[in-house]
Write a structure and sequence with these properties.
- The complex is a heterodimer of chains A (126) and B (333).
- Chain A contains 4 helices and no strands.
- By secondary structure, chain A is mostly helical.
- Chain A starts with a helix and ends with a helix.
- In chain B, the strands form 2 sheets. In chain B, strands 4-5-6-7-9-8 form a 6-stranded mixed sheet, with no helix packed on it. In chain B, strands 3-2-1-10-11 form a 5-stranded mixed sheet.
- Classes of the chains: A mainly alpha (126), B alpha/beta (333).
C-alpha cells in the first residue's frame, strides 16, 4: 500500500471521527441550540460524505472541501471559546472528551491535506 | 473495482487528459471540459451525500418527528417573558408598558394556548406598589393556564422582596422559590437576587430545598430551572453569574436533561455544559450591551425602528419521550 493511499485512508478516518463527534453532540443535546445545532448537523453530514468519497478517490475538489470543513470546524471551536459564536460560548475542553477529540482529528486532517502541497512545493524548489 | 484501482484509474485518466489537453477546449482556468465535469460530479456527490447524512442524523435525534406537531394535545407548551422593567423611563425605551403589552398580545395570539407563562424577573423597575399593581394587572390579561414568576433584583429594591412576594409569592417557599411537575417535566423556580452583592446568590436554604426536591425523582425526568440571574458564568465582571450555582447544578448532574432559563442579561445567549443547557432570554424593555462591550451593562439606545428587533418572547415545547425541550425565541412583532 502506497504512502498516498495510507494518507488518504487516514484523512477519511479523521473526517469520519470529526463527523461522529459533531453528530453525537447534536443528537445528545446541541440540536436545541439556535444556529449551532443545525451547523453541527450539517458539519457531521458533510464530514461523513467527504470521508466516504475520499475513500473512493482523491480529486482536488474533495481535498479543498475537506480543508474548508476542517478549518471551519476549528474556527468555530476557537470563536466559541473567545468572542462567542451566534451567542454560544463554551470553556476550555468542555464537553470532554468530544472537544479534544474533534480538535485533534481536525488538526491532523489539515496536516494530512497539507502534506502533498508541501512536498510538491519542496520538489519544485529542489 | 477497489478504491486503490479506482484511484490509479483516476490518475491515469488525469494523465491522459493532461497529455491531450492541447487537443481539447480549455476553460478560463486552464481546465478541460472533462475535468470540469468530473470536479462538478465529485462536488455534487458530496453535496447530495451531505444532505442525506444530515437528514439521517436528524432522524436519529428525533425518530418520530423533527418538531412537536402543533396539534399534539399532550405536548407541554409554555412561554417565557423577561425583564419588562415597568416604570423605566429612559431613551432606550420611552414606552416599556407598550412593549410589554405587545409581548402579552403576541403570547395571546399563539396558535396553541400555553400551559403557563413564566416571567423570569425584573417585572418592575423600582419595586413601587404602583408598578407591581400595573404588572400584575397586565399579566392578568395573558390567556394561559397559569402565570408564574421569579423575582429580579429590580423587584426587591428596598424591601428584600416583600412587595414582590405579596403580589406573586402565593404558594412559594422561603424567599419565593418553588417547584412543580407538569406533563412529565419537573420545574424548579429559584430566587438568586435577594442577597446578591456582585453575583447572584442562592444560599444554603435554597440549595437544601433543591436537594430534597429532586431526591425522589428518577434520572430520566426532564428538569427545567427558572432563575433571574444566569446560573452559569456568563460575564462575572458585570455580575452575570451566580456564585453558588455549582452546588445546585451538581445536584442536577444525574439527570439526563436539564434546561436552565434565565433573564437579567437582556439578550439571547445559549451554552451547554454537560447535561445542562442554559438559555438567557431577551427582554421586553430595552437591550443591554453584549458582555464586556463598554464599561457597564447600561441600557442601549438603538436607532429608530430597531428596538423591536432586540425585544422578544420565548416559546418552549416538550413532547414526552423526546428528551429535550425545544426553545424558540421570537422577536417582538
Amino acid at each position: 500500500m502506497s504512502a498516498a493511499t495510507i494518507t488518504r485512508f487516514a484523512l477519511a478516518l479523521c473526517l469520519a471521527v470529526s463527523g461522529y463527534v459533531h453528530a453525537e453532540l447534536y443528537v445528545n443535546g446541541y440540536r436545541v441550540i439556535p444556529v449551532i445545532g443545525e451547523s453541527f448537523r450539517w458539519q457531521a453530514g458533510a464530514s461523513f460524505a467527504l470521508a466516504l468519497l475520499v475513500l473512493l478517490a482523491d480529486p482536488p475538489v474533495l481535498r479543498f472541501a475537506a480543508a474548508g470543513l476542517m478549518a471551519g470546524a476549528l474556527g468555530g471551536f476557537a470563536l466559541s471559546r473567545t468572542t462567542g459564536l451566534f451567542g454560544f460560548t463554551e470553556h476550555g475542553w468542555q464537553p470532554a472528551p468530544q472537544a479534544l477529540v474533534s480538535v485533534v482529528v481536525e488538526v491532523v486532517a489539515l496536516a494530512l491535506l497539507a502534506l502533498p502541497v508541501l512536498f510538491a512545493a519542496h520538489g519544485r524548489r529542489a | 473495482m477497489s478504491a486503490t484501482e479506482e484511484n490509479s484509474a483516476t490518475e491515469k485518466d488525469s494523465a491522459t487528459e493532461n497529455s491531450s489537453a492541447d487537443e481539447q477546449d480549455l476553460g478560463p482556468e486552464g481546465m478541460t471540459r472533462r475535468q470540469l465535469l468530473r470536479h462538478t460530479a465529485w462536488f455534487g456527490s458530496a453535496v447530495v451525500l451531505t444532505v442525506v447524512g444530515g437528514e439521517v442524523i436528524s432522524h436519529v435525534a428525533t425518530p418520530d418527528a423533527v418538531a412537536v406537531p402543533p396539534e399534539d394535545p399532550n405536548a407541554l407548551r409554555f412561554a417565557q417573558i423577561s425583564d419588562s422593567h415597568l416604570g423605566f423611563k429612559g431613551a432606550a425605551n420611552t414606552a416599556v408598558e407598550d412593549s410589554f403589552a405587545a409581548a402579552i398580545r403576541q403570547i395571546n395570539a399563539l396558535p396553541q394556548r400555553p400551559d403557563f407563562v413564566v416571567h423570569t424577573g425584573d417585572l418592575t423597575h423600582l419595586s413601587t406598589p404602583a408598578q407591581f399593581d400595573q404588572v400584575k394587572q397586565m399579566m392578568g390579561e395573558l390567556r394561559t393556564g397559569k402565570v408564574l414568576t421569579v423575582p429580579g433584583e429590580h423587584d426587591s429594591v428596598d424591601d428584600t422582596g416583600q412587595k414582590y412576594r405579596q403580589a406573586f409569592g402565593a404558594g412559594s417557599r422561603g424567599d419565593g422559590w418553588y417547584s412543580f411537575d407538569l406533563r412529565g417535566v419537573h420545574f424548579i423556580a429559584l430566587v438568586n437576587t435577594l442577597s446578591l452583592e456582585k453575583l447572584g446568590h442562592l444560599g444554603a436554604d435554597q440549595i437544601e430545598f433543591v436537594r430534597t426536591d429532586v431526591a425522589g425523582l428518577s434520572s430520566d425526568t426532564p428538569i427545567v430551572v427558572f432563575s433571574h440571574i444566569p446560573l452559569f458564568a456568563m460575564y462575572p465582571a458585570w455580575g452575570w453569574g451566580t456564585d453558588d450555582a455549582a452546588a445546585v447544578l451538581n445536584l442536577l448532574r444525574r439527570f439526563a436533561s436539564v434546561t436552565c432559563l434565565n433573564g437579567h442579561v437582556h439578550q439571547l445567549f445559549t451554552k451547554t455544559e454537560g447535561n445542562v443547557t442554559f438559555h438567557s432570554a431577551t427582554t421586553t424593555a430595552y437591550p443591554l450591551p453584549p458582555p464586556g462591550q463598554g464599561t457597564a451593562p447600561a441600557p442601549v439606545t438603538l436607532p429608530a425602528g430597531k428596538l423591536k428587533d432586540a425585544l422578544g418572547i420565548r416559546e418552549v415545547t416538550y413532547r414526552k419521550g423526546s428528551g429535550l425541550l425545544a426553545v424558540k425565541d421570537v422577536r417582538l412583532a
